[in-house]
Design brief:
Keywords: Signal. The protein is α/β, with parallel strands linked by helices. The chain contains six helices and five strands, in the order H-E-H-E-H-E-H-E-H-E-H.
Length: 125
C-alpha cells in the first residue's frame, strides 16, 4: 500500500509528466520567424489560409491546411506533434485560432506568426 507521501509523490510525477511537453503558444514577429527558419531544422511552417489565398503566394517551405476546412483537426493529425510549428494566415486572426487548436492537440511548440502573409510580403519589399 502506498503511504500518504508516496501518493503525493506519484500525483506530482503524473501531473509534471502530463504538462512538461506542451508549452504555451508564442506570438512571433517577422524577425523572430526568420531566425526560427534559419535555426530550427525540424520547423514546420503551416499556412492556414484558403486555397484561393494561397494562390497569391506562400511563404517558402510552408504547407497548407485551410483553417476553414471542416476536416482541419483531422488533417493536422498528419503532422508530427514533436516538431515546432509556425502558424500563419493572411493577417493574424485565423492563425491565432489555428494555433490554439494545435496547442489543444498537444503539439509541443506552437508559434503564431501574427504579421501573417501580408506582413511577410511587406517586410520582404
Amino acid at each position: 500500500m502506498i503511504g500518504k507521501n508516496g501518493f503525493f509523490l506519484l500525483l506530482l510525477l503524473l501531473v509534471s509528466c502530463n504538462t512538461a511537453t506542451v508549452q504555451e503558444i508564442q506570438t512571433i514577429s517577422t524577425t523572430e520567424m526568420v531566425k526560427l527558419m534559419e535555426n530550427e531544422k525540424d520547423l514546420v511552417i503551416l499556412d492556414v489560409r484558403t486555397p484561393a489565398e494561397t494562390a497569391q503566394g506562400i511563404i517558402p517551405g510552408a504547407i497548407q491546411i485551410d483553417w476553414q476546412d471542416p476536416g482541419f483537426n483531422d488533417k493536422i493529425k498528419s503532422l508530427d506533434t514533436d516538431k515546432p510549428v509556425i502558424v500563419y494566415c493572411a493577417s493574424g486572426m485565423r492563425s491565432a485560432q489555428a494555433a490554439r487548436a494545435l496547442h489543444s492537440a498537444k503539439f509541443s511548440k506552437v508559434y503564431d506568426y501574427s504579421d501573417g502573409y501580408y506582413g511577410w510580403i511587406q517586410a520582404r519589399q
